C-alpha cells in the first residue's frame, strides 16, 4: 500500500535563516494512521506540517532539498492547490485563514473550488456542522466567534472538501478540555471509520497521547518516526503521567492515565492539604490586592460577566478557567482597566486599575505587542516607557530566554513568542500580572519556565492571574482556581479542591490517583 | 435577500442621489438608507464599518464645503459646495448601507465565472479596512497594558509595526489558505445559490421605478432637481419625487430570510471582541 506521505532526505532552510529548519528527514506516514508530530518549541514541527502539503517551499521560499510525495504526487511539481483534493491543512492561527465571512460559506469554499456537485456539497456541509458540533454557528460571521469556535470551524472547513489526509497544527491549543476531547474524538473517528490519515502537532500530549498510533519526533530539524511510546520517551517529553514515570523510574513510561494507574498499582491516600494551600506573602513593596464587587460587564447587549465578587491577594496565582466563551478574557480585561464594567467596582489596592501601571496583561496573540527588532529591545521598550532603569537581562534570565536576546521576535516559533511577550509585559514590574491563554505553542520545558517565573512573581508579593484551558498548567502553578460559566463564578477555591471536584477539568494526577494529587513531582515524592 | 436585489437597490439609490442636489431629496435618501440599515444589517463587525462610512460621509461634507476658501467666499459658493458635498456624503451612506446588509462574497458570486478572480480580489481588499480597524484597537489596548501609550508619536512604531506585520502575516496566511483549499482550480460550483424571493423582486421593481422617475424628471425638466445657488433660492420639492424616494424603503419591510438567522448567542467572548 502506498504511504499517504513520503519524505525522502528532505532538507529545508528558510530564506535568510542561519540553520536548516528540516534536516535530512526521511520517513513514511501510512494511510489510515493517526500520527502525532512532537518536539520542543522551535524544533521544526510547523515547517514539517507545511512541507506535507507543499506550502513549504511554494509559499515560504528558501532552499529545499529532497522529495516529499503526497499520495504519490511530488510537492515540487504539484503546488498546494493541486493537492487540495487529497490533503487539507489547518494552521496554528485559524483566524487569518478564513476566506469568507459566514460559517456555512466558509465550510463550502473548498468544495466550490473543487467543483463538488451542489447536492453533495449541501449534505456534506450539514455533516461537518454536526461532526464538529457547530450547527448553531452556521449563520454567524466567523469574526464574531470565540477562539474555540473558530478552531472548530477551521477544522470543519478543512474536512469538508473530503481530503483523505488532514494536517493540523496544534488544533486544540485554544479549546477548553471538553471541546478538545470532542475534536480529538472526532479526528479519531475519521481515522477509524473513514480511513483518513491525520497528522497533527500538539504540545499537550495528555490530550492526544492515548489516541494516536504513530509518532514523529522532531528535534533541531531532525525527525524520527515510530511508536508513540518510543518517540515520546526518547524526546524526554510527554504528558504528566510520562513525567511521573520518568521521575519514578518506570520502564516503559506510561502515556495514559490508565497505564499509570496500572503501573503504580495502589490508590494513594488523599494528601493532607498543606502542599496545596496558597502561600500568601504580605510583606512586600509590590503588594496590592485585586478586588471586584458586584461587577457586571457587557459586550454590546451581551452580558459577559455578571455579579462577580472576587478578591485576589498578593502571593496568589489564580487560574481562571471555564469553557470557551465563559468570560475569562473579559474578566482579565476588566481587572486590567481596559473594559469598563457597567455595574460594580474594580480596585487594585485602593484605586481603580491603571492599565500598564497597576496591572500588566499579556494578550492571547503575542504578536499584537511585538514590534522591536530584537527581543532585548522589546523588553527595553517597556522599561523605557515605565521609566525603569534596569536592563533587559534580569527578566530574560528569569524566563530563561537570554539566548534569544538578539533574535528578531517575529522569526521565533509561536511558543518562543509567547515567552518574549510575557517578558515584555512583566518587565513593567506591575503588581498585577495577567496572562491570557499563554500556552499556545509552549512545550513542557517552556511551560516549566513560565511556571517558575510566575511563582517568582507571586513570591515577590505580586498577584498573577492566568486565563487558561490548560488544566496541567493550572495544576502546576495555580494556588487557586476560579471557574467561570456563562459570565458567573461557579467555583472558587484551592486548586486541588476545585480541579479535584471536576470531571472535565481534573488534571492527569487527579484522574490517576484521586483528589488532591496535582503534579507528578508531588506523586513521585509520595510513591518514593 | 438575493445579493442581486441589494446590488440593484444600491445602484438605483445611487442613481437617484446622483441626479439631484436638492437637500430635501438627499436628506430623504439618507433617512431611507438609515431605515434600511437598521432593519436589515447583519449584526457583527459590519455594524462597525457602517459607522466608518457615516464618519467618512460627514468628513466629506465638511471638506467639500471648506474647499470654498480657495475661491470667493460668499453665500452662493458655500451653498453650492455644501450641496455637492451632501450629494457625495449621501452616496457614501448608500454604499455603507449596501456594505452592511450584504455579505461581500455574496456579491462576488454574482460575477460571471471569468470575472470571479478580480471580484474576489476586490472583496478581499474591501475586507482589509475593517480588519485593520480591529487590529489597531487590539494593538493599542495591548500596548497600553504593558505601559506603552501608542498615542504619543514617539511610540507610533509600537502601534504601526504589529498592525502592519500582523497584517502582512495574515495576508500570507490567507493566500496560503486559499491556495491549499484549491482556489483557482477552474471548475467551480456554487453552494446554496440564493433564490429570488418576493421581497427581492419588489425591491428591484420599486428601486428601478424610483430611479426611472428621477431620470424622467431630469430628462424632461419637469421638476427642479438642482436648486439654484446663484442667486440663492429655496429648493422646490415635488411630492411625487419624495414618494419615489420612499419606494427605496421597500427592502426595509422585507423579512430577513431564515438562512441568515443567527443561532446561539451574540458575539463570542474569547478573542472575538
What does this structure look like?
- The complex is a heterodimer of chains A (528) and B (273).
- Chain A is α/β, with parallel strands linked by helices.
- Chain A has 2 domains: 5-239, P-loop containing nucleotide triphosphate hydrolases (Rossmann fold, 3-Layer(aba) Sandwich); 278-517, Rossmann fold (3-Layer(aba) Sandwich), CATH 3.40.50.300.
- Chain A has 20 helices and 19 strands.
- Chain A has helices at 45-51, 55-58, 80-83, 103-114, 118-131, 147-160, 177-194, 205-208, 228-234, 240-248, 257-264, 328-336, 375-385, 393-398, 414-426, 444-459, 471-477, 495-501, 508-513, 520-527, and strands at residues 5-13, 22-29, 34-38, 63-70, 73-74, 87-90, 165-169, 197-201, 214-219, 222-226, 290-299, 302-312, 317-322, 343-348, 359-362, 432-436, 463-467, 480-485, 488-494.
- In chain A, the strands form 4 sheets. A 6-stranded mixed sheet of chain A has the order 6-7-8-3-9-10, sandwiched between helices.
- In chain A, helix 4 (103-114) crosses helix 5, helix 5 packs antiparallel against helix 6 and helix 13 (375-385) packs parallel to helix 15 (414-426).
- Chain B has 9 helices and no strands.
- In chain B, helix 1 (3-19) packs parallel to helix 8 (198-220) and helix 8 packs antiparallel against helix 9.
- The two termini of chain B are 27 Å apart.
- Chain B has 2 domains: 3-109 and 220-256, no CATH class; 114-180.
- Chain B is flat.
- With 273 residues, chain B is an all-alpha fold.
- Chains A and B meet through helix 3, strand 6, helix 4, helix 5 and helix 6 of A and helix 6 and helix 7 of B.
Feature tags:
heterodimer; A: about 525 residues; alpha/beta; Rossmann fold; 2 domains; six-stranded mixed sheet; 20 helices; about 20% strand; globular; B: about 270 residues; mainly alpha; 9 helices; about 65% helix; flat
Amino acid at each position: 500500500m502506498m504511504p499517504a506521505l513520503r519524505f525522502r532526505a528532505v532538507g529545508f532552510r528558510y530564506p535568510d535563516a542561519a540553520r536548516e529548519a528540516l534536516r535530512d528527514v526521511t520517513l513514511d506516514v501510512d494511510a489510515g494512521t493517526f500520527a502525532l508530530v512532537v518536539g520542543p518549541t522551535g524544533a521544526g514541527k510547523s515547517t514539517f506540517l507545511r512541507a506535507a502539503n507543499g506550502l513549504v517551499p511554494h509559499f515560504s521560499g528558501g532552499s529545499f532539498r529532497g522529495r516529499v510525495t503526497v499520495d504519490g504526487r511530488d510537492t515540487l511539481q504539484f503546488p498546494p492547490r493541486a493537492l487540495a483534493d487529497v490533503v487539507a491543512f489547518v494552521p496554528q492561527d485559524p483566524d487569518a485563514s478564513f476566506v469568507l465571512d459566514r460559517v456555512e460559506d466558509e465550510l463550502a469554499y473548498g468544495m466550490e473550488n473543487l467543483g463538488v456537485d451542489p447536492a453533495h456539497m449541501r449534505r456534506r456541509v450539514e455533516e461537518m456542522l454536526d461532526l464538529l458540533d457547530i450547527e448553531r454557528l452556521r449563520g454567524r460571521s466567523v469574526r464574531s466567534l470565540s477562539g474555540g469556535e473558530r478552531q472548530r470551524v477551521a477544522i470543519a472547513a478543512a474536512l469538508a472538501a473530503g481530503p483523505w489526509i488532514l494536517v493540523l497544527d496544534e488544533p486544540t491549543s485554544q479549546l477548553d478540555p471538553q471541546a478538545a476531547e470532542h475534536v480529538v474524538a472526532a479526528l479519531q473517528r475519521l481515522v477509524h471509520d473513514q480511513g483518513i490519515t491525520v497528522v497533527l502537532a500538539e504540545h499537550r500530549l495528555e490530550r492526544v497521547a492515548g489516541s494516536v498510533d504513530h509518532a514523529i519526533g522532531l528535534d533541531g530539524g531532525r525527525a524520527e518516526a515510530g511508536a508513540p511510546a518510543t518517540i515520546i520517551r526518547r524526546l524526554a517529553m510527554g504528558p504528566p503521567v510520562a513525567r511521573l514515570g520518568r521521575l519514578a523510574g518506570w520502564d516503559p513510561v506510561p502515556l495514559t492515565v490508565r497505564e499509570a494507574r496500572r503501573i503504580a498499582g495502589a490508590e494513594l491516600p488523599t494528601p493532607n492539604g498543606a502542599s496545596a494551600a496558597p502561600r500568601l506573602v504580605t510583606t512586600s513593596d509590590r503588594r496590592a490586592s485585586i478586588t471586584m464587587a458586584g461587577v457586571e460587564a457587557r459586550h454590546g447587549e451581551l452580558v459577559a460577566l455578571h455579579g462577580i465578587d472576587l478578591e485576589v491577594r498578593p502571593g496568589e496565582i489564580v487560574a481562571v478557567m471555564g469553557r470557551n466563551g465563559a468570560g475569562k478574557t473579559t474578566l482579565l480585561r476588566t481587572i486590567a482597566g481596559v473594559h469598563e464594567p457597567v455595574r460594580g467596582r474594580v480596585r487594585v489596592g485602593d484605586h481603580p486599575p491603571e492599565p500598564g501601571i497597576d496591572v500588566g496583561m499579556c494578550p492571547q496573540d503575542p504578536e499584537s505587542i511585538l514590534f522591536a527588532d530584537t527581543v532585548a529591545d522589546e523588553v527595553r521598550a517597556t522599561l523605557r516607557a515605565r521609566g525603569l532603569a534596569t536592563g533587559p537581562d534580569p527578566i530574560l534570565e528569569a524566563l530563561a530566554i537570554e539566548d534569544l536576546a538578539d533574535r528578531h521576535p517575529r522569526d521565533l516559533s509561536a511558543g518562543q513568542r509567547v515567552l518574549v511577550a510575557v517578558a515584555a509585559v512583566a518587565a513593567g514590574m506591575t503588581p498585577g500580572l495577567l496572562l491570557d491563554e499563554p500556552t499556545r505553542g509552549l512545550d513542557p520545558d517552556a511551560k516549566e519556565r513560565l511556571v517558575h517565573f510566575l511563582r517568582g512573581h507571586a513570591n515577590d508579593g505580586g498577584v498573577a492571574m492566568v486565563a487558561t484551558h490548560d488544566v496541567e498548567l493550572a495544576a502546576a502553578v495555580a494556588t487557586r482556581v476560579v471557574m467561570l460559566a456563562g459570565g458567573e463564578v461557579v467555583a472558587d477555591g484551592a486548586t486541588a479542591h476545585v480541579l479535584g471536584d471536576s470531571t472535565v477539568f481534573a488534571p492527569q494526577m487527579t484522574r490517576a490517583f484521586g483528589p488532591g494529587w496535582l503534579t507528578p513531582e508531588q506523586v513521585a515524592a509520595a510513591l518514593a | 435577500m438575493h445579493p442581486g436585489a441589494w446590488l440593484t437597490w444600491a445602484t438605483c439609490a445611487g442613481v437617484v442621489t446622483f441626479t439631484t442636489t436638492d437637500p430635501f431629496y438627499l436628506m430623504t435618501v439618507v433617512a431611507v438608507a438609515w431605515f434600511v440599515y437598521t432593519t436589515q444589517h447583519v449584526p457583527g463587525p459590519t455594524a462597525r464599518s457602517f459607522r466608518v462610512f457615516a464618519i467618512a460621509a460627514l468628513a466629506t461634507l465638511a471638506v467639500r464645503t471648506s474647499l470654498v476658501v480657495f475661491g470667493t467666499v460668499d453665500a452662493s459658493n458655500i451653498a453650492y459646495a455644501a450641496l455637492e458635498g451632501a450629494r457625495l456624503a449621501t452616496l457614501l451612506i448608500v454604499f455603507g448601507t449596501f456594505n452592511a446588509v450584504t455579505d461581500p462574497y455574496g456579491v462576488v458570486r454574482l460575477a460571471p465565472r471569468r470575472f470571479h478572480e478580480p471580484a474576489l480580489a476586490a472583496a478581499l481588499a474591501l475586507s482589509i479596512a475593517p480588519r485593520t480597524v480591529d487590529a489597531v484597537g487590539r494593538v493599542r489596548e495591548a500596548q497600553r497594558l504593558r505601559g506603552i501609550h501608542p498615542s504619543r508619536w514617539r511610540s507610533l512604531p509600537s502601534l504601526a509595526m504589529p498592525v502592519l506585520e500582523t497584517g502582512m502575516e495574515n495576508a500570507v496566511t490567507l493566500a496560503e489558505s486559499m491556495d491549499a483549499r484549491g482556489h483557482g482550480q477552474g471548475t467551480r460550483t456554487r453552494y446554496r445559490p440564493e433564490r429570488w424571493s418576493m421581497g427581492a423582486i419588489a425591491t428591484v421593481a420599486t428601486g428601478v421605478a424610483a430611479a426611472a422617475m428621477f431620470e424622467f424628471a431630469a430628462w424632461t425638466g419637469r421638476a427642479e432637481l438642482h436648486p439654484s445657488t446663484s442667486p440663492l433660492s429655496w429648493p422646490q420639492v415635488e411630492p411625487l419625487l419624495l414618494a419615489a424616494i420612499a419606494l427605496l424603503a421597500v427592502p426595509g419591510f422585507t423579512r430577513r430570510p431564515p438562512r441568515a438567522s443567527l443561532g446561539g448567542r451574540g458575539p463570542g467572548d474569547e478573542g472575538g471582541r
